[in-house]
Specification:
This protein is 52% helix and 2% strand. It is mainly α. The protein folds into two domains: 125 residues, no CATH class; 224 residues, Intergrase catalytic core (hpI Integrase, Chain A, Orthogonal Bundle). Strands 1-2 form a two-stranded antiparallel sheet. It comes from Paraburkholderia eburnea. One of its GO terms (biological process) is DNA recombination.
Length: 366
């Protein structure tokens, strides 16, 4: 299964391992980062409809149809951290073995260059293996730290010299994507499902609605909302930024006027789920200081952890906090989903309580 995942991801970018290694070249760090990212998710949830290269069979596998159909309504799910770590180590071992095997058939100079490349690249690759406790959830996905959140917002700013995109429209749109994800905690599918008519023109509010099989959505895999319909209030400044994007940027793209979706590509077509993943992959590659685990879903974890911190500052009871969170995230009243998204906050509170207990011990200072 791991090798199948490896080869499918390589096929997406037309990489043939044997050909590459016979040329005396190893995989690049960005290519390995893509493998590391894919290793976080369930294979059945990943889309491989474009994996076949030119000239491959035109026969459509029924499993692909099922995968596309399910992807339209189910967001990509993460595997356990232990599974992710195991996949990365297995991939590294296989790539090391195959490059060494192929390298032994090459001239001495090429063999040496391939060995040096592979050693450096695999060291960077293995650095992404998460630490896994035998018992618990250490290493499970968390939100961004305050420092990483500030670094992300600084990099994504349209006027930042470190912003990885060149075109003004793309810079502003991607900045708005990150801001809306951090501000609302919505999923990428919910963001891409937003239509301009979902925005309140009088108040700083937007509606997140379920639209299964929407006739006005031309995307083959339609992003969708998994949770309940809900209304989300924004700060006026953020709402002004949304309308500024619509009136000053989006409106200038004639093809975009045919589509109701808020977030579009620079050719006017509604943006795809894969494009959101690409945006965060480009951010990670362009800005090594950002976490290698940075994805759109980490924004959701970040929102939930900030929500817990604010609830604590306001002195909300657990019951009130839970009800408020469930309403904001579109969860059922009795949902326990918050536990998945508040690990960093819960861990910090646990440490604080544990230290308080230790204060009761009579241990003299040396």
């Amino acid at each position: 299964m791991v090798l199948a995942l490896l080869y499918r991801e390589l096929a997406k970018t037309d990489i043939n391992l044997l050909v590459r290694f016979r040329q005396g070249r190893f995989l690049t760090v960005p290519e390995l980062n893509r493998l590391a990212e894919a290793a976080q998710y369930r294979v059945d949830d990943l889309s491989y409809e474009d994996a076949d290269g030119p000239g491959d069979s035109k026969i459509i596998d029924i499993r692909r149809i099922r995968m596309r159909r399910s992807a339209a309504i189910v967001e990509v799910n993460a595997v356990a951290v232990a599974t992710q770590a195991s996949r990365l180590r297995y991939m590294a071992d296989f790539l090391d073995f195959l490059s060494t095997y192929v390298g032994s058939t090459l001239p001495a100079v090429q063999r040496k260059e391939l060995a040096l490349e592979s050693a450096g690249a695999l060291k960077a690759f293995l650095a992404q293996v998460p630490r896994v406790s035998r018992r618990a959830k250490l290493g499970a996905r968390e939100g961004l730290s305050k420092e990483d959140q500030d670094r992300l917002l600084k990099v994504i700013n349209p006027d930042s010299p470190d912003n990885p995109w060149q075109r003004g429209f793309v810079r502003h749109r991607n900045w708005l994507i990150v801001v809306l994800l951090l501000a609302t905690g919505m999923r990428r599918g919910e963001l891409l499902g937003l239509q301009i008519r979902d925005l309140d023109q009088r108040l700083p509010k937007l509606r997140i609605l379920r639209r299964a099989d929407a006739s006005e959505d031309p995307r083959r895999i339609q992003p969708n909302t998994k949770t309940n319909d809900r209304e989300v209030e924004l700060r006026p400044a953020i709402m002004r930024a949304v309308w500024g994007y619509i009136n000053d940027r989006r409106r200038k793209i004639k093809a975009a006027r045919k589509h109701p979706q808020l977030i579009v590509a620079d050719d006017g077509q509604p943006l795809s789920l894969q494009s959101i993943d690409k945006i965060f992959r480009q951010l990670r590659e362009a800005c090594p200081g950002l976490p290698v685990t940075l994805t759109s879903h980490v924004m959701r974890h970040t929102w939930n952890e900030r929500f817990s911190e604010q609830a604590e500052l306001l002195g909300l009871t657990d019951a009130v906090e839970e009800k408020a969170r469930n309403e904001q995230q579109g969860w059922a009243d009795n949902s326990k989903s918050a536990a998945t998204y508040t690990r960093r906050h819960a861990s910090r509170k646990g440490r604080e309580l544990a230290l308080k207990l230790q204060e009761q011990l009579d241990v003299p200072d040396n």
